[in-house]
Amino acid sequence: RVRTHHPRRARRGPQTPRAPCVHAGGKGYAEPEEGDAVRADGSVTLVLPQAWGPASSHEEPPPKGGEAKSALEEAARGPILVDTGGPWAREALLGALAGQGVAPGDVTLVVGTHGHSDHIGNLGLFPAASLLVSHDFCLPGGRYLLHGLGEERPLRLGPGLEVWATPGHGGQRDVSVVVADTALGTVMVVGDVFEREGDEDSWQALSEDPVAQERSRKRVLDTADVVVPGHGAPFRVVREASQPETKDPGNSRQDSVVGDKEPTMHG
Q1: Where is the composition biased (Basic and acidic residues) (predicted)?
Q2: How far apart are alpha carbons 257 and 64 in whole angstroms?
Q3: DSSP string, 147-188
Q4: Degrees (nearest 5) of the Cα angle 146, 126, 118?
Q5: In terms of C-beta density within 10 A (0-12 exposed, 13-18 middle, 19 or more buried), how is residue 114 classed?
Q6: 3-state class of 90 per DSSP?
């Protein structure tokens, strides 16, 4: 049986947050060209949390030494951009944001899933935003804070929002964003943990740590209803119950199966 984890919800007062919205800001691609060349750009995703009141309304006090957690939760109250694409796609990014009524100065948090140029090439457009790039978190102006993110220690951004460590593709410091309770269920924006739907034949050749990435991929499939990959369209994860084996009638489980339906990415 697949155990599905959903980000822990905060205890909250009378202002109950609505479900966050997830918008595809730009579908990534990777297209082979002559010789060994590849033309590529990473997916860009805009997460719009719905306001749940000022920081003082949180009933859970920040943990001791939790300045970074408090700062992350505060930054996550505004528009969150997950990856920025490459600098060659600057105008496309600005156009996608404008289409959602968001200016660069409105973005309060940028999450870079890993440090490759096709995913964080436009950080300079967001000098007023806090940045969480891989495992490095800094406030506007370059003040870096320790946060304690690890494979078993997600970072909570707010109700239904978490950052997970998902190592493998770019080494040990890749991260993914988990958005629960959307109209599509739990959406995971995973960078290049998945290059695209159906990438089983290619992802290992691009991975710095295939063993760790295999583990990360399983966690994603065990958790997400929709996956936003690094270089392709969002796809649904379909879990199908398998029949018990004849030799062991008690051996019943669920398998994670990648489906082929492309969802509309807004909740």
Answers
A1: 57-71, 258-267
A2: 41
A3: ---BTTBPEEEETTEEEEE--BTTBS--EEEEEEEETTEEEE
A4: 85
A5: buried
A6: helix
Angstrom distance (rounded) from CA 158 to CA 136: 19
Which residues partner with 239 through β-bridges? 256
Give CA torsion, residues 157, 5, 134, 182, to 10 deg.
Answer: -60
User: How do beta strands 80-82 and 109-112 pair?
Assistant: parallel
Q: Which amino acid is at 195?
A: E
Question: With contact defined as beta carbons under 8 Å apart, do 178 and 154 qualify?
Answer: yes
Residue 60 covered by a domain = no
Integer Cα distance of 178 and 112 in angstroms: 14
Q: What's the structural domain count of the chain?
A: 1
Distance CA 213, CA 235 (A): 19
| Each residue's pLDDT tens digit, 52-81 | 444 433 344 444 437 888 999 999 999 999
- Residue 13 resides in a domain: no
Judge whether 219 lies within some domain.
yes
Assigned token pair, 31: 């297209």
Residues of the chain under the 50 pLDDT cut: 1-17, 51-65, 243, 245-261, 264-267
Helix (H, G, I), strand (E, B), or coil: what is residue 255? strand
